[in-house]
What does this fold into?
Amino acid sequence: MAAAASSLSDKLKSLELETPLPKYPNCYPEVNPVDIYRAHITSILEDVTGVDTSIIYPALQWTQTLDKGDLVLPVPALRVKDKKPAELAAEWVEKFPETPLVHKPTTNGTFVQFFFKVDKLAQVLIPAIIKNQKSFGLNPFNGMKDPEDPSKGRKKMIVEFSSPNIAKPFHAGHLRSTIIGGFLANLYQGAGWDVVRINYLGDWGKQYGLLALAYERYGDEKALEVDPINHLFEIYVKINKDKEDEKAKIKAAEEAGQDVTELKDKELDEQARRYFKAMTENDEKALALWKRFRDLSIKRYMQTYARLNIHFDDYSGESQVSQERMDAAAKRLEETGVSEVSEGAVIVDFSKLVPGKPGKSLERPIIKKKDGTALYLTRDISEMVRRDETYKFDHMIYVVASQQDLHLKQLFKIIELMGYKELAAKVQHINFGMVLGMSTRKGTVKFLDDILRDVGEKMHEVMQKNQTKYEQVENPLETADILGISSVMVQDLSGKRINNYTFDINIMTSFEGDTGPYLQYAHARLCSITRKAALTPEEIASADLSLLTEPHALNLIRVISQYPDVVQNTLKTLEPTTILTYLFKMTHTLSSSYDHLRIMGSEKELMKARMALYDSARIVLNNGMRILGLTPVER
It folds into this structure.
């Protein structure tokens, strides 16, 4: 960080600023060039307004559209009494002195608008982007236990996401959890946190007894090796059909007055229950088969996750929660008076524990059935406590669909009522809406691989429509696959997380509109310009940036400068669309610049300056795409 500080003081000298800049909380000019402007404006506003800098600095906001300025101050945020905000705004603008970094501010109702002197901004911004490359826009101070003392280490974040059930289709809900969870893990890692990615698999329960019976009856060793997830799903569907037929047969026999004791004793449900009981009692043979199913499924999932740029540090699961831990949790629930026995089952009656409406809204979940089987809540309580002991995390996020809102509210409240107040304060549910209209071309089973295959095929058809460009692509099928994955991910990340959306293969695979292929095309175009210009990094580094004077160049510089603020803001919203909307805004600004800021045929010095600008745009676009989990293509 010392090197960053010394290069910062050189920058400030070149901007004709007095060094050092005043220091403010959450102000990191070494990683965010706009913070130089924030700090500079804050120090002037302190004299102009008489308000304390601790109020001014956080009140300076970035703008959504450039016509409103580069930073804006909402006057009411400074809490000055006895004068109307609009009068104060006019008075402060009048008093604001000439400065090397910003033009004379303007008022807009109760807002003061600041426009940067873009020639100065370019001198700080473009070299910083070209020097920092992949780390530009990331602020590692966010994840430090103490930003003033890096030796204290980083905070630990757990993100639990994806979490499919073994032998069941990887459905749309799991797809959303996977994409959003992958994005959140990237975001926090970029912000300097020590991130642990956990996949909590649905891998335990009576259904695995049924699956074992299905394998005995219908299993095929070779099919299991080649495609475990599909094979296990197929035999599971078959055994379920057998189970239904059997139930109908027993019912018919009962109605005919026959003795069905023996039939019931042999029925699949009963056999599955016994098999699962053997698993819980550590029967070696039963566990060995279950472990094979689990291991092969994980291996196959890992290949699919790799296509989405996702990896996990821990493939955990319901099976990993020990009986001892669940017994301990049940005991503590009883001792703290959180649970009670009702009609033979163990429940939590929130109306008795939490006063008023909030208590009623949490309902009366069952945590243990009459037959002694522990339900999800007990398992989830035990697992949360185990993770706290194992990882000693600072924060944990569960990325789970909004259908589970009540379950997670119950879980967090129970943890708090059991006396784990600090733990309850460290956990968070990030929810999301549903995907509608999702079925594959070859039927309605929604395996992730089938979805990605369909979209890849569709993308390949779309690419072939432009034969000239298609011929330039080195490996068209691989590129179609990456573009297909981008189109699925961008459609998923486009709206607010909580909104439902309709899965539309035609819209998502189009190069028109705000789609994954459009972003990829914008990136590939910048890479193509870089190749054609064929300038060395030294030539780009020596560019004279004062030659960038056209309005299109200045606007592009201003939009690019917002990227670190966008990432910072995303840590508040935790919405992928915060970054995505920005990337589309930037690429639109970019595409309207190409005709005005030509590279080929322009004079060498001007070419170098423009190339430095395009290079910066490419780096920012690439960085934003990677946080979202996309693989930027170069052709």
Summary: Residues 216 and 332 are 41 Å apart (CA to CA). The first strand starts at residue 61 and ends at 62. The chain has a mean pLDDT of 93.
